[in-house]
Design a protein that fits this description.
Layout: H1 14-51
């Protein structure tokens, strides 16, 4: 039979691994949000400029 992992060693490294993965994922999501925000602002600004009529107002 295999030796396995001693009870004192379980979770000692996994907490750090989970924390590192969480911080990495959070960083990626943050920059993805910034990229989406900036891209959508540029695209919607062009769309709204192109769809405005030359004579705004009623009628």
């Amino acid at each position: 039979m295999g030796k396995g992992v001693p009870p004192g060693k379980v979770g000692s490294n996994s907490t750090k691994t989970v924390g590192d993965a969480s911080m990495t994922g959070t960083g990626i999501e943050f920059y993805e949000f910034l990229d989406y925000r900036n891209t959508s602002a540029l695209v919607f600004a062009k769309v709204s400029i192109l769809t405005r009529s030359a004579h705004p107002g009623p009628g």
